[in-house]
């Protein structure tokens, strides 16, 4: 198969982890006879420095015409403490999600048998956890009307949802649940928010189309608690943009390291694959960041292309590296820590 993949390394550790995913994908394409053309493009703070904006039109063109986008991370500390900055790297991410129509963010959380004791949560609580948070990604308070009034003394952000936005996300959730354990949880704040009541009403009306799926409705504050108490009780969860942002960071600690969790963002056209960790600027350029989340994101890419053997080969080699202790310092636990690039080389060689 010929694959044309846009490669957006971005900021911080982005380029380092992306390099390892490229090594792994190239090794996969050699083994399975594919031909990948990588199309590098600028995004994030590096794009601001180069051309003055974080998601330039040239980058959008490359992404929109690609078969998939592989993305590293964006963000730079020099913008974080400067509330007056006019352009920020994060705006690029939001613009990209919106322009590519990536309305559903798929964030799985699972445990690795060899790492179960690395989690800050007790083994008996997390064993068997295998859940997916499906986060709405192009609506809600991230994209609602915002501003200042009353001489700048009042600020507001609006959480707006239209029924069709909820339907298209929930459809993905129901379909995903059908392929898994047929359990779907709608996470909202319907005891307070009108937009959440629309979510609930909309999802309830869809239940009849998926009679086999058992749907539960839970408030986001309670879910925040239960997610670390009994994560294995959940399977597919659907939720609004901001709730999903918060819950997926929380869920990432279950596996033991944020450096392990992959994600995909999908819509009606091209899909994007990225690690859920950020740009981790303290580690940038040191060759110490964990590349596995990005490598596993590449596995999700192959899976979505129906290249399941390729995806499995990646997951298998990742499991092997974990079992054999070929890991970066976040997982080394006193034993030898390998460099980011060494882990990438090892994975590529062992495929
Ligand atoms: C994420 C990130 C982004 C978000 C930021 C960087 C804008 O936290 O992908 O979860 O809030 O969506
Ligand atoms: Mn986030």
Provide a descriptive summary of the structure in words.
With 351 residues, the protein is α/β, with parallel strands linked by helices. It folds into two domains: 1-111 and 257-351, Isopropylmalate Dehydrogenase (3-Layer(aba) Sandwich); 120-130 and 137-255, 3-Layer(aba) Sandwich (Isopropylmalate Dehydrogenase). It is 42% helix and 20% strand. It is built from 14 helices and twelve strands. It has helices spanning 14-32, 45-51, 57-64, 77-80, 89-99, 123-126, 163-179, 194-206, 220-229, 241-252, 292-304, 308-323, 329-332, 340-350; strands at 2-10, 35-40, 68-73, 104-110, 130-136, 146-149, 154-157, 183-188, 214-219, 236-239, 262-266, 271-275. Helix 8 links the parallel strand 8 and strand 9 (214-219). The radius of gyration is 20 Å and the shape is globular. The two termini are 18 Å apart. The model has no long low-confidence stretch (mean pLDDT 96).
**Tell me, what's the shape?**
globular
CATH architecture label of the largest domain: 3-Layer(aba) Sandwich
CATH class of the largest domain, named Alpha Beta
Strand content: 15-25%
The ligands bound in this entry are: 3-isopropylmalic acid, manganese (II) ion
CATH topology of the largest domain: Isopropylmalate Dehydrogenase
**Number of discrete helical segments:** 14
Low-confidence stretches: none
How many independent structural domains? 2
Derived structural class: alpha/beta
Spatially, the strands of the biggest sheet line up as 2-1-3-12-11-4-5-10-8-9
Q: Averaged pLDDT, please?
A: 96
Oligomer: single chain
Distance between the termini: 18 Å
- N-to-C order of helices and strands: EHEHHEHHEHEEEHEHEHEHEEHHHH
Full CATH superfamily name of the largest domain? Isopropylmalate Dehydrogenase
How is the biggest beta sheet arranged?
Answer: 10 strands, mixed
Count of DSSP strands: 12
Residue share in helix: 40-55%
- How many whole angstroms does the radius of gyration measure? 20 Å
């Amino acid at each position: 198969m010929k694959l044309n993949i846009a490669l957006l390394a971005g900021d911080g550790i982005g380029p380092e982890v992306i390099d390892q995913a490229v090594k792994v994908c190239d090794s996969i394409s050699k083994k399975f006879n594919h031909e990948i053309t990588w199309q590098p493009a600028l995004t994030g703070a590096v794009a601001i420095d180069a051309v003055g904006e974080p998601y330039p039109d040239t980058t959008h063109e490359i992404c929109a015409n690609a078969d998939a986008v592989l993305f590293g991370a964006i963000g730079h500390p020099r913008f974080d403490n400067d509330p007056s900055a006019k352009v920020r790297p994060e705006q690029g991410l939001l613009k990209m999600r919106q322009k590519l129509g990536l309305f559903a963010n798929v964030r799985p959380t699972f445990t690795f048998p060899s790492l179960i004791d690395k989690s800050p949560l007790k083994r008996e609580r997390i064993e068997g956890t295998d859940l997916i948070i499906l986060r709405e990604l192009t609506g809600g308070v991230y994209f609602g009307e915002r501003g200042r009034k009353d001489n700048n003394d009042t600020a507001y952000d609006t959480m707006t949802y239209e029924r069709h936005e909820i339907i298209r996300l929930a459809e993905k959730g129901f379909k995903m649940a059908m392929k898994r354990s047929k359990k779907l949880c709608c996470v909202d704040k319907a005891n307070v928010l009108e937009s959440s009541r629309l979510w609930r009403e909309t999802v309830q009306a869809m239940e009849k189309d998926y009679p086999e799926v058992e749907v539960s409705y839970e408030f986001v504050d309670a879910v925040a608690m239960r997610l670390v108490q009994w994560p294995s009780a959940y399977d597919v969860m659907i939720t609004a943009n901001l709730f999903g942002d918060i819950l997926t960071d929380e869920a990432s600690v279950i596996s033991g390291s944020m450096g392990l969790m992959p994600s995909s963002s999908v819509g009606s056209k091209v899909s994007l694959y990225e690690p859920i960790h950020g740009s981790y600027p303290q580690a940038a350029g040191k060759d110490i960041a964990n590349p596995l989340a990005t490598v596993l994101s590449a596995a999700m890419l192959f899976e979505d292309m129906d290249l399941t053997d390729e995806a499995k080969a990646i997951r298998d080699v990742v499991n092997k590296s974990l079992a054999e202790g070929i890991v970066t310092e976040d997982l080394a636990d006193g034993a030898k820590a390998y460099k980011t690039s060494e882990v990438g080389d090892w994975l590529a060689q062992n495929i």
